[in-house]
Amino acid sequence: MTHGLLLINLGTPDAPTVTSVRKYLKEFLADPRVITLAAPLRYLFLYALILPFRPQRSALAYQAIWTKEGSPLLTHGHRLVEKLQHYLGDNYHVVLGMRYGKPSLYDALMQLSHCDSLTILPLYPQYSSAATCSCVEKTLSLLKTTVTVPQLHLIRDFYQHPGFIIPQSEQIKPYLATHDYLLLSFHGVPLNQLKPTHCKTLCVGNCPQPRTSNATCYRAQCFATSQAIATQLNLNSDQYGVVFQSRLGHIEWIKPYLETTLPELATKKIKRLAISCPSFVTDCLETLEEIGIRANRQWQTLGGEQLTLIPALNENDAWIKGILEICDIKLPSYTK
Hints:
Blueprint: E1 3-12, H1 18-29, H2 39-50, H3 54-65, H4 72-88, E2 92-101, H5 105-111, E3 117-122, H6 129-143, E4 151-154, H7 162-176, E5 181-187, H8 218-233, E6 240-245, H9 258-267, E7 272-276, H10 285-288, H11 290-301, E8 306-309, H12 317-326
Parallel strand pairs: 1-2, 1-3, 3-4, 5-6, 5-7, 7-8
C-alpha cells in the first residue's frame, strides 16, 4: 500500500514583482472565506480598493525578504518535504501544495493520485475558516473529480498537540534568558469570522479553553496554544503576552493588536523583546517582514533596544518528528 502525505500552506507569489504579487493577491483575496462579503461587494472591494494599490506595497515587502533561492515560504516548504520524505521512505509520498499560487493543490494531488491512502495536513496549528477550511474545501472539491478517492485522514488542527507545542517551546527557550519579555503573535482574523464558529462570548481578555461550545474558535485556540507554551516553559503571566497581527482593511479584528501593544510594553521599561509567531510553522512575509522589519522599526522608535524575531519551526528536526506524531504515522525504523 502506498501512502500519501499532503502538506498544505497558504501560498506565495512567483516573484517579488508587482505583476506577480497582483496575480497572487487576486486569487487569494477573491476567496469568499478570506473576504466574507457578498460577491458583488467583495469584488468591488478587491478591484477598486485593493488591487490598484496594495500590489505595489506588497511587492516591496516581498523584495525585502526574498532570497537567492526564492520565496522563504516555498524554500522552507521544499526542505520540509525533503526531510519528511527521507524519514518516511518509499512507502510514503510527501508533496507540498499551496492554496493559492504554485505548486498548486491540483498539481500536488496529481502527484499523489497513485496513493491508496492520503493524509491531509494544512500547516496551520489553529483552525480558521479563512485558512484551514478554505484549504480543505478546495482539496475535497478537487478529489471529487477523481475516479477513485483514497482513504482520507484529515488533520483539522494541532494547536495543543505535543508534537507542535514541544518543538515550538524548545524553539523559544534559548531566547528567554537574554530578553525581558516574550510576545506570542498570531495572525489575526476579522472579529465577525468568530461568530459562525459558535463562540458564545467574543472575549476581550484571555479566552476560555476550547470546549464543545467554542471548539473551533480561532481566538480560543490561539490562547490555548499560548497557555500550553507558557506551561511548557514555566512562564508566568508577567513574562509573556498574546497579540494578533496582519490586519487588512478598517473593520474590527480580534484583539489585542500587535501595533498598539508595543507602545504599552515600552512604557513598562521593557527594552529587549522576543517575538514568536505560533500560528506560522514556516517563516514567511508575516514573520520576516511584518515582525522582523516593521515591528522592529516600530520598537526602535519607541525606545526599545532589541526586538528579536524567533525563527519559525521551518524544517527543524524536532518538528519533523512532531509532524509524524500529529499525523499518527508510526515507523518501526524511526528511532530519532
